[in-house]
Design goal:
By secondary structure, the protein is α+β, with helices and mostly antiparallel strands. 16% of the residues lie in helices and 40% in strands. An eight-stranded mixed beta sheet has the order 9-10-11-8-12-15-14-13, with helices on one face. The radius of gyration is 17 Å and the shape is globular.
Length: 268
């Protein structure tokens, strides 16, 4: 289902965006890597850039700025954030805190587009909440240049599993063929994954719990080569796994993400 025409069910990853120090440099990098189109937005949106693929929204890129427009010191780390859909941000915030999570950025209206918040699960993995109004989220997924998977890499899989089940109604179950890997399902459809940090080979010491965004590509190896030529960094070189051929990489400003050429259909 590359084109998304209806609303996202609660608990489904519906959007990703990047917080970065040099917004224009990031726009240029992802344009060249994935073919995205986007430009720095209007002042009333904080300059938020809506990136499109084939004319449909695919991701956002925003500059790390203080409320007054100045640059924060120190600059926050460059990071991709996964947003989970909800019908009621404020109610979900209460469910988050009631199940051991924390609110980082309380619910706020984004013009007439929707309402958002940023929270963490009990293991410290940060993610966004999105209550759609005029803007439902990504309009294209599961094809080269678009998001294809979102994954929680956590220090405590049991605690994280219980949290996402209770706070967002997500079904967590072992994934067939993936030792130590769990599927996140909404309404019977796999929408993401979960695994323990200890399940990941060659992870840098001290890596905290986090959500990882996967982008689909036509060719994992050539995409990684292009990323390196553009100043990016390879954290885990291309390798074959049950879903396809993937790699974990960083953009030139340190934003971490995965790229994958799938062996078959996946769901976001």
């Amino acid at each position: 289902m590359p084109d998304v025409t209806g609303p996202y069910a609660t608990g489904t990853p519906c959007w990703v965006d990047l917080l970065v120090a040099d917004q224009q440099a990031a726009l240029d990098f992802y344009r060249d890597l994935f073919g995205w189109q986007g430009e720095i937005g209007a002042p009333d949106t904080g300059g938020y850039a809506l990136c499109t693929l084939n004319g449909k929204p695919v991701a956002g890129i925003m500059a790390a700025l203080n409320p007054d427009g100045s640059r924060p010191d120190p600059t926050p780390p460059t990071v991709w954030t996964t947003y989970l859909a909800t019908a009621d941000v404020d109610a979900t915030e209460k469910a988050v805190t009631g199940n051991g999570g924390q609110v980082v950025m309380p619910g706020m209206d984004v013009l007439t587009l929707g309402r958002m918040a940023v929270v963490t699960d009990p293991t410290g993995a940060a993610f966004g909440l999105w209550q759609a109004r005029d803007f439902p989220g990504a309009g294209i997924v599961n094809e080269p240049g678009a998001v294809i998977w979102n994954e929680v890499d956590t220090s405590d899989p049991a605690a994280a599993s219980a949290f996402y089940s209770k706070a967002l109604g997500i079904t967590v179950a072992p994934m067939e063929g993936g030792e130590g890997y769990f599927s996140l399902s909404v309404e019977g459809r796999a929408v993401g994954g979960l695994q323990g940090l200890s399940n990941i080979d060659d992870l840098p010491p001290g890596t905290p719990s986090h959500w990882l965004t996967y982008f689909a590509v036509d060719d994992t190896d050539s995409t990684v080569d292009a990323l390196v030529r553009a100043g990016g960094n390879v954290l885990k070189p291309p390798f074959d796994m049950m879903a396809g051929r993937m790699a974990v990489v960083q953009d030139p400003q340190g934003g971490t993400f995965a790229v994958i050429r799938t062996a078959g259909p996946e769901a976001t």
